[in-house]
# Entry
Amino acid sequence: MDVAILGVAQTKYDGKKEDYNYAELVYEVTTQALEDAGMTIDEIDNIVTVSNDFWDGRTISCMGVQDACGAAYGEGKNVSTVEGDGTFGILYGAMRTLSGSYSTTLVVSHSKGSEGNSRMITNAMFDYIYQRPLGLDAISSSALQAREYMNRYGVTEEDCAYVSVKNRKQAMQNPYAHLGMDLSIDDVLNSRPLADPIKLHDASPVSDGAAAVVLGNRVVANKKGRKPVWLKGIGYCSDAHFLGDRCLAEAPALQKASHKAYEMADINNPTEDIDVVELYDAFSYMELMWLEEMGFCSKGDGKKLTRRGVTAMDGELPVNPSGGVISSHAVLVAGMARVIECALQIRGEAEGRQVKHAKTALAHGINGPCAQSHCVMVLSE
Amino acid sequence: MSSSGEIELIKLQEVADLPYNWSAGKYGSKFLRSLRDEKRFWGTRCPQCGKVYFPPREVCGPCFAHIDEWVELSTEGTLTAFSVVNFPFIDPELGEKRPVPYTFGYIQLDGCDTAMSHFVNEHDHTKLWRGMRVKAVFKEDGQRVGNMQDVLYFEIKENQ
Amino acid sequence: MGQRVAAVGFGQTYHRSRRDDVNGIELIGEAVRSALEDAELTLDDIDAVVIGNMDHFEAVNYMDNWSVDGTGAFMKPVFKVTTGGTTGTTVGIAGYHHVASEMFDVVLAIGWEKNSESDTTGAIITCSDPIFDRFSFSGALPGLAVEASAYMKQYGVKEEDAARVAVRDRRHGALNPYSHLQSEITTEDVLNSTMLSYPVKLLDICPRTDGAAAVIFAGEKKAKRISPRPAWIMGTSVRHANCYFGDIDYTANDSLKYATRELFGNVGIKEPLKELDLVELYQPYTFAGLKWMEYMGICGPGESPQLVWDGVTDLGGELPFNPSGGVLCTNCIGATGMLRIGEAAMQIQGKAGARQVEDANLALATGFGGTFWTDMMLLSSRPW
# Structure
């Protein structure tokens, strides 16, 4: 695949960025990503914005960012909008570059979760006849999944707490992170229950933020001189929608997506071939589940990797050196943040949290209830 | 099945109340503060093309240039578009019907290159035309809170 | 780099003002099955799905996930693309890139809207900026009224000229079994219809429709196997400038001008009136059917009424516009742009039945929405 990441930028993730409206956040990361890529707006052939009308409280909310992302520049640029996690935006941006239509693509995402009611916004993702009236939202539905997974594979709340402790502590090394904190296992276990078995410290916050990446084809990548980070493999897949149609303890869509990404990237043994993983841990149980489904260990053994320190910064397979989604969760942006962290790691620019010899990385994003849809990307130098 | 043999089709009705708390941002906040405290309008001017924008904004789209120059705008302007709205509908912000008829218009304030949208106090469309001069009418001191409805409406200037 | 792409199948629902007999997922399923049937394919042949609508109309968040039972995206790659009124064409363009990138060979692109389930006016109002515009925003009408009246004033164009556009589109729609509005009208009918905002009257504007449309795109090798006459995608262009409605100059349509310039420039079209065989124009109201022809370079400023009266844009004329009946006959917003692409593809494939344009080799499909945004896609019987 001849598409590389040439520039990246992200805001610091905060609980409330009241000084900025979302267009201003987009402008900030757009200009910074361009600078990072050593490019001007003239050199951007087309743009993909990533946003969500419910999170923004506005129909066609992408309208608000056209000036800020450069789509109105000069006589205007070709632009489109993906509504879904940032990984899907990057994926579409990669398609538009690989199609030969454009040699450079800017992908920019934003989310100000503080402006809306996240319970109601996520309640709206369920079908309105059978599931929405139950009051399901991201937290309560994920709690169902957590419980099924934990029951089936003998995973305890303490096993999950290890993830929270690891990632939140790790977030203290990431200047962009929202919640960096030094927790103990007991801190997590005693934290306020949200929806059993999910407690406060098992759950990601809702953050405000924005991020952008500049993609380019091989010709541009070679010219630009900066260390390009190549997209080697992409896979994405959606499971069924009705929770009752799914076995929530399994994630066949993630299996399929990761297999496709591995196949494209020539990954035969994920544990050996991949140096660092940034996965979408919206809740602590998710890190365990996703590691298993992506083939890093057998089902139910994710907890062993964590307890043994395999997924710690100094372990054999560091997972979420950024602190992960559980530490910073600007919805939609978070998947892009995973890709950005992977790019920084591969470039050797992840100050304070650099994984040694990070040559090949995996970034993962999710979309929909109980991670109905997954996107997996393999990146390397 | 009813006696006529038709199948009953069921529909589920819901009124969704989604609360939001939007940030006006630094530029929007300055405009709204000035409106609330001083009854003055401000726009921002692009350093490259010189275009003056309302609502005030950080970026000039066509130039992709950062803007930090503020220009005071007049509280008078020209009506560039209007429509006398006669069909009642539920305002999504209030959850209630907007009283009709009302006149919605785009007003290009003197000094500005883009238009502000607001209400106009004339509802007879034969008495309105593009190019009319209009003037902002504000809420009283103490009543303005820092939103666009601190301007009650635009009134048609006399003798046109 | 990349592979050539063609549209090889098109399906749509029978468009109506209300489809109470189906929920949204079922509505989508109808269009998908229709497209698969048209291309003689099954779901197994589909590599990926891309879909769009306008969220707040049906009040479903993450709609691409919600609709998998209807789209066939279960255990397949799927994501959502949405850009307001231009959604249908935006999704079509995404379908093109899915295949052109060589990531997939056969892709299903779907647009849909179940307007009857929504508070359409309320939802549209929420597209305006919440701080500065929303309290007063009252929809597209004032802008369109300005565009129309300024145009009339500048070139001496009359309301009857615009009415003739409606007569044409309704006549075409009457030949289209899928069309929402299927009855012909006269210029008198249009002129006598309720004045909404001078000079725009009720019969000058589009209806509100429940409907879905799906187009199947395929890469070169597969396209040739699937269809005896694939509709090749020659090029696309998109201009989505303007953040605020007050930024729009209603006496110009820059997005259309620049999008046309890019598309025709890339493909080498210099005389669109001669070179194009048909146009499926996203024409939200009649006056656009006059003025926007001029922005596309089909004729000079002020000249379009004559072309329309001479029958140049009728079926059988030199450059038929909206042989499907267009947006004035059917407007299921998220699908409307997709219908333009699908209808253009059908024409090239020779499948348009009673509304077939003779020698349809080069067809233009456009999308419109938001703050005067424009999307375009050019389809041809010959690959490039």
